[in-house]
Amino acid sequence: MDEGKRHYRLGLFMVVSVTALAVLLFLLGGRKLFQPTYTFETYFAESVAGLEVGAPLRYRGVPLGEVAEIVDSAAEYERDVPLAKRRSYIVVRARVSLSAVEALQVERDAPELIKLGLRAQTQLAGITGQQFLALDYLDPAKYPPLEFDWTPKHQYLPSAPSRTGEILAKAQVFLANLSEVDIKKLDENLNDKVGELPVAQLSADAHDVLRNANATLVRAQPLVADLKQSVDNLAVITRSLRGVADRGELEHTITHIDETIERLNGLMADNQYDVRLIVRDLRKTVENLRELSATIKRYPAGALIGGPPERVRLPVEKSQ
Asked: How is residue 90 annotated by DSSP?
């Protein structure tokens, strides 16, 4: 009986341990196994170097999922196709993490989104060189779907060349066009254009400009000399003032002026009455001078020999 209880407890312990372990694994990441996903695939006719499994999937910069698989169409869909007829596309499958309702919605709207120009494109992630898969709307006429004759395992989304590839392609075209340029003909055209330039007129204009500039410099020389003399005088004055300040003469002069002003203030305060008498006498003197000036104007001789002469009275004859 005891043996059976021990086996029962051991079995119960094992069941509880396995259940707890399963719950822990589910919390740590096992929930992704039951999370609804939407998988699509796209094909590239160019190299996707730098794009790896697990690289981010972004829709206009917004994280949407990750790259799930990268394979060659020859191994995936063209095993029975002759080597000369194989397209050898790069098949990239991406997984979008969505709810069940969102997954059904995307699967239903995918054909219409493709018609509107939804395309997959590889892009560089900063300066690290690692690439990610980007979804964005482009011109559907410029980037039509690639041709293939197999049935995709997942929803097919057309692709567009990477921007890096477009830049390199344009650079190659530019270099190819540059190499085809006839250097000799270009040199002849350049010589013809140079020959058409009015060299004589340009030389005459340049000569006039230089002559005017020379005249301006000649007129400016006296001004520069005067300015230099003013600067030299200012420097002398500055040195003199600095010497006076260094010797203390300026401070001594200011102190002497302050003492003189204090003495004058004291003198004026002590002799205010005398100053008033002097001012009054000065006023009387000014009035007397003003009267003397008026008298001289009326009787110039009287001002020198005395007052005006007495009036002469003529004798009057007595009547008989």
From this structure: E
Cα(200)–Cα(23) distance, integer angstroms: 95
Average the pLDDT over 246-263 and give the result: 71
Q: Residue 93 belongs to what H/E stretch?
A: strand 90-97
Going from N- to C-terminal start, the domains of the chain cover: 33-160, 198-247, 252-300
Taking alpha carbons only, the member of 85, 48, 86, 87 closest to residue 70 is: 48
| Rounded Cα gap, residues 320 and 318, in angstroms | 6
Residue 19 structure tokens: 């259940």
The angle at the Cα of 163, spanning 161 to 150, to the nearest 5 degrees, equals 15
pTM score of the predicted model: 0.45
Taking only the tens place, the pLDDT of each residue in 177-199 is: 655 555 666 666 666 766 666 76
Sequence-distant (6+) residues with CB within 8 A of 99 are 36
How long a stretch of residues is the chain? 320
